[in-house]
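Support reply, case 0932

Customer input (verbatim):
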Amino acid sequence: MGDVLSAADVTELRTGYARRDQQIEMYQKLEERLGRELEQTRGYLNEVLAATKAPIVGFARQLGNSSGLFHDDWATGNVALQLHTERPVTGIVIKGLIPENFPQIKRGFEIEIAGQVFRVSLDANGGFDFWCPVEIASDTTFAVRLRCDAEFNARRAGQGGDERDLAYHLNAMELSHEAAPGAPGDDERRSAR
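Our regenerated output:
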């Protein structure tokens, strides 16, 4: 047979159980609060990422949010944004870089600009320039989608701490503009500065 609990033992056990219950309740409330804070932080981060602006060179501005771009100009395999022209656009050059430490594979790119689709393949890593001839009038809003069929995650490959799935670094989207009738062209305007 076991020992019989005294009144003091019972009081001590009840106090211990009450303290344990209070700690469990405290940790549950802490977990709920931290969960809410984490969701708020995720929401904020999603807003920041959506507000990321593409590196645009030329007479156009990005409207609204983008998807697939990061603050440091790294891009996922599916980038989408909208541009609004301030002058007619006759072409867009997509400039980027696929680092040497990314897998050495053939990559397919699909570039959609104002409904026109351009398909390009890239056989080697390094810098790239994709020329896309388009005719877009001044004061026009249009969509741009950049798709790449290969992404790389350095963390999963054991090559660093970056956990993002990245396709390439977007260096610039350079717009070419035709001169308005009677207005100086791009070259003349640059030399006049």
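We compared this against your earlier run and they match. Two observations from our side: The chain has two domains: 1-50, 56-179. The mean pLDDT is 88. Please reopen the case if you see a mismatch on your end.
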